[in-house]
């Protein structure tokens, strides 16, 4: 059967990968849906056949969405961007009364913040957050910050695709060079792998979350499941805080080793992860990290921003550089996860770090995949040891966090943009210029030497030394960014990714607040009982404590991280200038010019 | 009478000056020849009328040249570039047997070195200096180094034009901005005023030198005039040297004052020049400096490179900046002239520096203008206290100097090119980037301040301070070139100008050597007597001593100047890096980040 489908986003084929370049709006014929690994085979109107990421194609989505839309009948209109987390967690069994989906009409906007900037009152001005730039920009939704959109999306790997070696990360390895300008050139932001670029993964065609819930599932659930999991929240000095373990979990990602399968036809890289608790290393491939990410997103994404893994296509001109960079970023991701008291304490995270053998790992995986306390139901495990909050206060807090994370996202992006430009200048034109100055001094010096005039060797020696010093300075300038700017960029890049998750997390929160605001109306129309209304208010208070605990966790980490990276950056800058000045002093002392 | 004339070089009109843009090869009609000040009024084929520099128009030249050519009948062909010095000093009364003029056919080449790279043997390879790039490039001859050709030529002001106020330097003032790229963009060299760009002035239409002589006039002169002037050359440690005065003449150019004439309609700037000998200031306008330059060129140009005055169109966005820059360069020019034992001891130079009153000055001027010991006859005043040199040695020395000055010219131009680029980067994109980094830090800091999270003021204070530091660094970076690169550029610019005079000076020398080489042939054809031949050899030896003394003077000055400027440059660079590093240290100390 030839299925026609529309292309949702531009996709540029990578040469030699049997891929097909497609344009947004183009109609293609699906020629093979069972490729796996997040890819399908398609044919364009010119008869060319190749692989396209499933996510970029409308075909299997249209059905679900259209089915969904027929069941939606609400005067309230919430303009939703393609927020993958929300997509997953809106239950199709629980009818989302209050949402109408404009997914493929107006809302392929690229601003994740539009989720909670939308107008909940059906047309009147909302007083929560203004979005003067408009929520729909018509840009590809693949890039939540509108800056990076050329790379592959990370094809979602469901449990069934686990043993499919098609997308082996080793084969996927692509080099894109330093902090080079984004190919899209849209905002000059970086393309260091989409890791931190897209907030959470897009996997529209899988919608695992649709079997679970929107916030209503939790808010209106008659009987909350009574599991073993308990996530207490305390009132600390700074407000609501998670319960932090006495000693912080940490792990070291190291020792990448090349392995192979299928008689050497398929190769991959295995990393060794050693937690400080057991001090016993476990091995994982990139795809296992990806599996972990999916589980954490499913389970905690409603309450905790789970940053994306570093992209498959990390930077690096050479194999070693590529592996080193990926490892560095996997380390960064694991460190962040370890630091989070809820994530690090979860069963799925623990099994990942401490499985004893293959069987243990398989059992753990199966158990994690069957976990039902996912999506908004995570809130059912949260137990704030504090009095219920007034809904007005809940709303105020939410608004505050929304404003802050949006503002910080802007600030971080500004640093990334200017940092990228600085990186380019410091590794390109600037050292080249110092080199040329150095050469020019040396050339003039050797002309002087040829004069035949006696007694100028002191001058020519000094000039040659000055020339060499400038060549040294050139090298120092070119190498400096790796010593300081790199870390500033990595940290901000990580925060860009983290901040990209907040729209989803805060979105769930805001949808719940909206629901509570509607409560009176729902009671009046007998859709819920007055008792339900009370339950909702209590539960939205729990959600607020969760958000506050999470924000406080974010703030304390942010202060730690920025404190560390700013200190490192400035110290290295000072060292640099000191070294340059002492290099020249060295020169002046050693090859002192003839005194005047 | 409507005189038609051909345009020799491209000329771009400056807006608002009633000038007319003309192209090389274009025919124009001369509408007014009595404009004065080196300008004529012309009308192009489109009927547009405007002023064009006389030098750019062929009209009154063609006559003289054609007259000249009818008298020339020699098999020897020396390809001459438009060397103004040589042009002036070929006597039309003494028939220049060995030269045929290709002035307006092939030789409007822009390479001043072509003067002595030409083929003296009438077609066979010359073994003196090779000129692989070819001597005729078809570029405008206005720029001897092929780099600067857009500015006005400095119209020659003969004695008769002295009181013409038309070209008042104040009216002529034009601003062209820092070390901006040359408009012509030909070689990326600088257009800081053509001062050092064109070697010696082009004033084809005046040919005062035609009343004087080529090297033959001196070589074959039956009876050398016996004047009071004596210029001894001694054998010093480094070889032949000028006689240096016990105390070196110096002067200070300062205190520029605006004066006016014609009831304020014409204004000008008068500079105060104070020599260290009298300590009594004299006043001079730019045009007086120009008069002095012309006299020195006439008198010493065969033996001593006389660098051009700073161009009328020096740099400067504002009046003060313009005046300051011109003064600085006039000071540089005067210092160089003072340092030269022959120039500084000359009567014309002394009268310029020490005239007592207007009458004294007028008398001195008249006397200087009547001086007959000009052109190659200056060699008649030179008395080397050393045995005559073998012609082979003379030739070797000449070749050595020619090679050296050409090589140094290349080296200097390289520094100027890279220096100009560095100047642009340091005053443009680089500080802008530091500023943006500073702003980005401060912006993020103020976002952090808005978090509402307690206890982050230490971080935000430190981040704000870091941001401000980067703004300070931006300013330091932008201001640094004025403190160091400026002087490196000025010195090299001055040397570029000086080196541009050598082709003429060495050209005279080489023509003389050629003449001596021909001596046997001339004796054989009875054009000269064997005794004449002996005289020629002796006199060319004197010329060689002169050139050697001049080269030794050049070398010693060069070593002094480069030693000084390189020290200054490096010291300032070190200071800069020290200041930047201590600025950051200051920051770290004062607003120390919270310890980790």
UniProtKB/TrEMBL annotation, chains A, B:
<dbReference type="InterPro" id="IPR035558">
    <property type="entry name" value="SNX9_SH3"/>
</dbReference>
<dbReference type="Pfam" id="PF10456">
    <property type="entry name" value="BAR_3_WASP_bdg"/>
</dbReference>
<comment type="similarity">
    <text>Belongs to the sorting nexin family.</text>
</comment>
<feature type="region of interest" description="Disordered">
    <location>
        <begin position="117"/>
        <end position="195"/>
    </location>
</feature>
<dbReference type="InterPro" id="IPR001452">
    <property type="entry name" value="SH3_domain"/>
</dbReference>
<keyword id="KW-0968">Cytoplasmic vesicle</keyword>
<feature type="domain" description="PX">
    <location>
        <begin position="249"/>
        <end position="359"/>
    </location>
</feature>
<feature type="domain" description="SH3">
    <location>
        <begin position="1"/>
        <end position="62"/>
    </location>
</feature>
<dbReference type="GO" id="GO:0006897">
    <property type="term" value="P:endocytosis"/>
</dbReference>
<dbReference type="GO" id="GO:0030659">
    <property type="term" value="C:cytoplasmic vesicle membrane"/>
</dbReference>
<dbReference type="InterPro" id="IPR014536">
    <property type="entry name" value="Snx9_fam"/>
</dbReference>
<dbReference type="GO" id="GO:0036089">
    <property type="term" value="P:cleavage furrow formation"/>
</dbReference>
<dbReference type="Pfam" id="PF00018">
    <property type="entry name" value="SH3_1"/>
</dbReference>
<dbReference type="GO" id="GO:0097320">
    <property type="term" value="P:plasma membrane tubulation"/>
</dbReference>
<feature type="compositionally biased region" description="Low complexity">
    <location>
        <begin position="175"/>
        <end position="188"/>
    </location>
</feature>
<dbReference type="InterPro" id="IPR036871">
    <property type="entry name" value="PX_dom_sf"/>
</dbReference>
<dbReference type="InterPro" id="IPR001683">
    <property type="entry name" value="PX_dom"/>
</dbReference>
<dbReference type="Pfam" id="PF00787">
    <property type="entry name" value="PX"/>
</dbReference>
<keyword id="KW-0653">Protein transport</keyword>
<feature type="compositionally biased region" description="Polar residues">
    <location>
        <begin position="122"/>
        <end position="139"/>
    </location>
</feature>
<protein>
    <recommendedName>
        <fullName>Sorting nexin</fullName>
    </recommendedName>
</protein>
<feature type="binding site">
    <location>
        <position position="326"/>
    </location>
    <ligand>
        <name>a 1,2-diacyl-sn-glycero-3-phospho-(1D-myo-inositol-4,5-bisphosphate)</name>
    </ligand>
</feature>
<dbReference type="GO" id="GO:0000281">
    <property type="term" value="P:mitotic cytokinesis"/>
</dbReference>
<dbReference type="GO" id="GO:0006886">
    <property type="term" value="P:intracellular protein transport"/>
</dbReference>
<dbReference type="GO" id="GO:0016197">
    <property type="term" value="P:endosomal transport"/>
</dbReference>
<feature type="compositionally biased region" description="Acidic residues">
    <location>
        <begin position="161"/>
        <end position="171"/>
    </location>
</feature>
<keyword id="KW-0472">Membrane</keyword>
<keyword id="KW-0813">Transport</keyword>
<dbReference type="GO" id="GO:0005886">
    <property type="term" value="C:plasma membrane"/>
</dbReference>
<dbReference type="InterPro" id="IPR019497">
    <property type="entry name" value="Sorting_nexin_WASP-bd-dom"/>
</dbReference>
<dbReference type="GO" id="GO:0035091">
    <property type="term" value="F:phosphatidylinositol binding"/>
</dbReference>
<dbReference type="InterPro" id="IPR037426">
    <property type="entry name" value="SNX9_PX"/>
</dbReference>
<keyword id="KW-0728">SH3 domain</keyword>
<feature type="binding site">
    <location>
        <position position="285"/>
    </location>
    <ligand>
        <name>a 1,2-diacyl-sn-glycero-3-phospho-(1D-myo-inositol-4,5-bisphosphate)</name>
    </ligand>
</feature>
<feature type="binding site">
    <location>
        <position position="287"/>
    </location>
    <ligand>
        <name>a 1,2-diacyl-sn-glycero-3-phospho-(1D-myo-inositol-4,5-bisphosphate)</name>
    </ligand>
</feature>
<dbReference type="InterPro" id="IPR036028">
    <property type="entry name" value="SH3-like_dom_sf"/>
</dbReference>
<dbReference type="InterPro" id="IPR027267">
    <property type="entry name" value="AH/BAR_dom_sf"/>
</dbReference>
């Amino acid at each position: 059967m030839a299925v026609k489908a529309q292309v949702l986003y531009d996709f540029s084929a990578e040469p030699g990968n049997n891929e097909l370049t497609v344009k947004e709006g183009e109609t293609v014929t699906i020629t093979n849906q069972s490729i796996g690994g997040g890819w399908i085979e398609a044919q364009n109107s010119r008869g060319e056949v190749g692989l396209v990421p499933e996510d970029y194609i409308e075909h299997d989505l249209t059905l679900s969405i259209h089915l969904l839309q027929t069941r939606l009948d609400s005067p309230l209109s919430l303009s939703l961007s393609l927020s993958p987390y929300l997509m997953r967690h809106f239950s199709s069994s629980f009818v989302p009364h209050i949402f109408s989906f404009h997914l493929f009409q107006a809302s392929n906007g690229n601003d994740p913040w539009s989720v909670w900037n939308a107008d909940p009152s059906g047309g009147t001005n909302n007083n929560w957050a203004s979005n003067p730039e408009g929520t729909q920009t018509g840009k590809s939704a693949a890039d939540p910050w509108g800056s990076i959109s050329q790379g592959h999306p990370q094809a979602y790997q469901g449990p069934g695709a686990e043993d499919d070696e098609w997308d082996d990360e080793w084969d996927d390895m692509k080099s894109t060079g330093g902090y080079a300008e984004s190919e899209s050139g849209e905002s000059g932001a970086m393309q260091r792998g989409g890791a931190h670029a897209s907030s959470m993964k897009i996997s529209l065609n899988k919608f695992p979350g649709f079997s679970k819930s929107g916030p209503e599932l939790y808010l209106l659930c008659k009987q909350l499941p009574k599991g073993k999991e308990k996530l207490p929240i305390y009132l600390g000095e700074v407000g609501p805080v998670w319960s932090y373990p006495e000693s912080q979990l940490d792990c070291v990602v190291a020792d990448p080793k090349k392995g192979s399968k299928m008689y050497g036809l398929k190769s991959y890289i295995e990393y060794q992860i050693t937690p400080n608790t057991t001090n016993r290393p476990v091995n994982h491939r990139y795809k296992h990290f990806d599996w972990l990410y999916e589980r954490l997103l499913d389970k905690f994404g409603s309450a905790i921003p789970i940053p994306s893994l570093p992209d498959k296509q990390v930077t690096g001109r050479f194999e070693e550089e590529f592996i080193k960079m990926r490892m560095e970023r996997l380390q960064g991701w694991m460190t962040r996860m370890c630091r989070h008291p809820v994530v690090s304490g979860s069963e799925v995270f623990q099994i990942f770090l401490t499985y004893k053998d293959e069987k243990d790992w398989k059992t753990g995986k199966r158990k994690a995949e069957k976990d039902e306390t996912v999506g908004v139901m995570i809130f059912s495990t949260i137990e704030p040891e504090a009095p219920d909050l007034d809904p007005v206060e809940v709303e105020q807090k939410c608004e505050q966090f929304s404003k802050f994370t949006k503002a910080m996202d802007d600030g971080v992006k500004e640093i990334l943009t200017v940092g990228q430009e600085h990186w380019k200048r410091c590794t390109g034109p600037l050292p080249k210029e110092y080199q040329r100055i150095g050469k020019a001094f040396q050339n003039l010096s050797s002309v002087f030497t040829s004069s035949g005039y006696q007694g100028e060797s002191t001058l020519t020696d000094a000039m040659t030394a000055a020339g060499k010093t400038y060549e040294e300075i050139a090298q120092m300038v070119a190498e400096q960014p790796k010593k300081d700017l790199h870390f500033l960029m990595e940290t901000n890049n990580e925060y860009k990714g983290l901040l990209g998750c907040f729209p989803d997390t805060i979105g769930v929160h805001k949808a719940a607040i909206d629901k509570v605001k509607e409560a009176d109306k729902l009671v009046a129309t007998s859709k819920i009982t007055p008792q339900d209304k009370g339950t909702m208010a209590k539960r939205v208070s729990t959600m607020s404590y969760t958000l506050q605990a999470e924000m406080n966790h974010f703030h304390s980490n942010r202060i730690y991280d920025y404190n560390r990276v700013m200190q490192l950056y400035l110290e290295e800058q000072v060292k640099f200038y000191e070294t340059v000045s002492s290099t020249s002093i060295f020169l002046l002392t050693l090859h002192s010019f003839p005194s005047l």
